[in-house]
Design brief:
It contains six helices and ten strands, in the order H-H-H-E-E-E-E-E-E-H-E-E-E-H-H-E. It is α/β, with parallel strands linked by helices and 207 residues long. InterPro entries: NERD.
Length: 207
């Protein structure tokens, strides 16, 4: 199920946001819908509250690491840094910390393990650092779960629920990239210069 068409024009107002989340929740047994709930929550809050002239978003950015194809859910490029955002499609009770290779989800009677999303983000950051020739200090890793989960362990500060996303991003207010550098990074991500590393699959989006 492909919901990307909703993101194309944006959504104005929290009424539409709430309505679609409710409809999605009714079908939340489908993995594609659960994934949509997480991504949609982040996307709409960002479009409602983040200045699109300051935060340039790339959705579903394809990247290859050691010959393996992977996809970053969201990359936000701004003067305040580059935010790598993962939106895991897990709900229910969640256990995990920065040092564990695998995290645990329990939903109803089903218990399962899933890869540590913070570790995955670090792999993405390392790849982008090499390809963009930037300091890793300019990158910020964020993991955002939809509101229908409950953390059972003390999570790192950068593991949050969707309602906290904009407040978390806003805390980074120090300018670390000038406008020319932001434009250069955008151009690289948008171009085919690193075709062997980045692919857009028609899902590129920018301000």
């Amino acid at each position: 199920m492909n919901f990307d068409f909703i993101f194309g024009n944006g959504v104005s107002g929290m009424a539409g946001y709430s309505l679609i989340l409710i409809l999605a929740a009714l079908a939340s047994k489908q993995d594609s819908v659960k994934r949509f709930i997480s991504r949609f929550a982040v996307n709409v809050r960002a479009q409602c509250y983040l200045d699109e002239n300051s935060y340039h978003v790339f959705r579903h950015l394809d990247i290859r690491i050691s010959g393996t194809h992977e996809q970053i859910d969201y990359v936000y490029v701004s003067r305040f840094g580059i935010f790598i955002v993962s939106t895991p499609n897990y709900q229910g009770r969640i256990w995990g910390d920065n040092g564990n290779g695998m995290w645990t989800q329990k939903f109803h009677r089903t218990k399962m393990l899933f890869p540590n999303p913070l570790a995955q983000n670090q792999h993405y950051i390392q790849a982008l650092v090499r390809q963009l020739d930037l300091s890793p200090r300019l990158f910020y890793s964020v993991v955002v779960f939809a509101g229908n989960c409950q953390f059972q362990t003390m999570m790192p500060d950068n593991v949050i629920e969707s309602a906290e996303f904009n407040e978390y991003i806003a805390q980074y207010s120090e300018v670390v990239l000038n406008d020319d550098k932001v434009a250069e990074i955008k151009e690289i991500l948008e171009s085919n210069e690193f075709d062997n590393v980045f692919g857009q699959n028609g899902s590129r989006s920018h301000a």
